[in-house]
Write a structure and sequence with these properties.
The protein has about 375 residues and is an alpha/beta fold. It has two domains: about 210 residues, Isopropylmalate Dehydrogenase; about 160 residues, Isopropylmalate Dehydrogenase (3-Layer(aba) Sandwich). The two termini are about 35 Å apart. It binds 3-isopropylmalic acid and manganese (II) ion.
């Protein structure tokens, strides 16, 4: 298969983690004889610094003329500290999601057996967690009209949803539930918000088309508790944009590090693959950023093109790296010299030679004879 992939490394640790995902995709390309071409473009603070625009036209057109987009991270402390900044890095990410019509964001939350003790939650509470969060990505309060009064004392952000925006992601979420444990939870705030009541009405109507899916509803405040108290009760969680942002980040506590959570952002025409973590500017260029979220986002890219064996091999390599503690410091307690690129090297080695990687890698890179 030939794929042109737009790479938008962005800010902070974005370039470092994306480089590892590209490394992994290149290895997959070689082993499975695919031609993956990578084309780079600017976004976020990097693009502001260069042309004073967080989302250059060239970036949008590159994304529209390639088969998929691999996104890194966005954000910069300079802007976080300045509420008056009119041009902000985040506008790049929100703008590309909107420009490409990426309405359905899929965020898997899987508790790895080898990492259960890394979570601050109890092992028995989280073991076996496998939740798929469907976050609506191009509507709601993120994209409603914003206002600030002239005197600067009153502000508003409108939360708006249309039936069609709810229906398209809901169908995808119901179908996902059909291929899993047949359970769908709509998370909302229908006791307060009119938009949530619209979500409930639309989802109830659609549910008749999916009689094999057990549907339940949960208020977001309660869901925030249940998600960490008893995450195994969830299969597919469907929710609007901002609730999905908050709950998916909360869910990273189950997994042990936010550096592990990947996502796919899908529209009718385009697809982008992005780790759920941010730019983590303090870690920039220190080699401590966890590349797994980006690498697993690349695996979701492979899934998207039905390259199932390829995606499975990436995931097997990731599992192996976790099992052998070839991980960055956010997870590691065993070795202190494992950098972002060493994690990528291990996964690349494993893809090239799944049989022999353990010994070779640990000999060459870690100076150990064996670590199993
Ligand atoms: C995410 C991020 C973004 C969001 C930010 C950087 C705009 O937090 O992808 O979860 O809020 O969607
Ligand atoms: Mn977020």
């Amino acid at each position: 298969m030939k794929l042109d992939i737009a790479v938008l490394p962005g800010d902070g640790i974005g370039p470092e983690v994306t480089a590892e995902a590209v490394k992994v995709l290149k290895a997959i390309g070689l082993v499975f004889e695919h031609t993956f071409n990578f084309k780079y473009a600017l976004i976020g603070a990097a693009a502001i610094d260069s042309i004073n625009n967080p989302l250059p036209e060239d970036t949008i057109s590159l994304c529209k003329t390639t088969d998929a987009v691999l996104f890194g991270a966005i954000g910069d402390t300079a802007y976080d500290m300045d509420p008056d900044a009119k041009i902000r890095p985040e506008q790049g990410l929100l703008g590309i999601r909107k420009a490409l019509g990426l309405h359905t964001n899929i965020r898997p939350v899987i508790a790895y057996d080898d990492l259960l003790t890394k979570s601050s939650l109890k092992v028995k509470q989280i073991k076996g967690t496998n939740v798929l969060i469907y976050r609506e990505l191009t509507g709601g309060v993120y994209f409603g009209e914003r206002q600030l009064s002239e005197d600067g004392n009153t502000a508003s952000d409108v939360c708006e949803y249309h039936r069609f925006e709810i229906e398209r992601i809901a169908h995808a979420a119901f179908k996902a539930a059909q291929s899993r444990k047949h359970k769908l939870t709509l998370v909302d705030k229908a006791n307060v918000l009119e938009t949530s009541r619209l979500w409930r009405r639309v989802i109830k109507e659609l549910a008749t088309q999916y009689p094999d899916v057990a549907l339940n509803f949960m208020y977001v405040d309660h869901a925030a508790v249940e998600l960490i108290k008893n995450p195994r009760q969830f299969d597919v969680v469907l929710t609007e944009n901002m609730f999905g942002d908050i709950l998916s980040e909360e869910a990273s506590v189950i997994v042990g590090s936010i550096g592990l959570l990947a996502s796919a952002s899908l529209g009718d025409t385009y697809a982008m693959f992005e780790p759920i973590h941010g730019a983590y500017p303090n870690a920039k260029n220190k080699g401590i950023a966890n590349p797994i979220a980006s690498i697993l986002s690349a695996a979701m890219l492979l899934d998207h093109f039905n390259l199932e064996d390829e995606a499975a091999l990436v995931r097997e390599a990731v599992d192996k790296s976790l099992k052998l503690h070839i991980t960055t410091p956010d997870l590691n307690t065993k070795y202190d010299n494992i950098t972002t690129s060493k994690v990528g090297d291990f996964i690349e080695d494993f893809i090239n030679n799944p049989e022999e990687t353990n010994l070779n890698f640990t000999n060459i890179h870690l100076g150990q004879s064996t670590i199993i």
